[in-house]
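Q: NAD(+) diphosphatase, please. Structure only.
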Amino acid sequence: MKRSGRAYSTMTAFVPHYATDRLVFHDPDPTDAPPLYVHVVDAAVVCGPGGRVLHEAPPDGCGDASIPLGSLDGRQVFALGCEAVPEGFRAVPLRDLFGLVDDETLGIAGRAVQCMEFDRTHRYCGRCGTETRMKEDEIARVCPSCGLVVYPVLSPAVIVRVVRGDRILLARSPGFPRGRYSVIAGFVEPGETLEHAVQREVAEETGISVANLRYFGSQPWPFPHSLMIGFTADYAGGEVRPDGVEVEEAAWFTADSLPDLPGRASISRALIDDWLEEQ
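A: Structure for NAD(+) diphosphatase:
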């Protein structure tokens, strides 16, 4: 089944960053207008004068192997890899683009970086070792020897806000900046549902159980290729005991005693801000 962007879906109250809204992934009838390009170098976005991300022509130093991302207002958009940053341009890490460009451009840039990284890391067949080639009708690479077809990697991860009365559970990972806390998150494992993943991650990392799971929203998280699926839940039992590996500290916080929180680009912050609005 062809996968489409949010241009085909209804909007929800939660509007995620790094997600496209107007980009049509598989446009059956794009216009004849000149295409647009997103240039990528080492997982960073090549920006032109004024921070421009969508370019009307490839600069010198970029290859000619482009990946179709979709169409924006009828104009086809392509990702294009560069060996080095062209003169007069600068490479901006994807995280640093947040707040510098509009959300639609940010989402297109995230899609471009993910697709180019997939293309760069799947040049050889994982089954027989033969050099792969681009598939012509979709974003994929195919092995000309054994026929294996591989698609862009997408790693689903759950993220959950747990509440106990007027308190929210926040945890600190060893990799966080000093003093930073967030809600619980973790990758979905083979053979489990999203709901099971929520319950397992909370139990493994903090020692408590949860109930009344409710879907909150989802967000592409191209660092490098996650899809965050957000939930809210209520405390059901147990004492908070950090596992000491994924979580080094965890505690219940009230609205007037919150620690340093994640940036506003992430669904983790959206989950916390949504709770704050209810207090």
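A: Brief note, in case it's useful. The CA atoms of residues 45 and 92 lie 5 Å apart.
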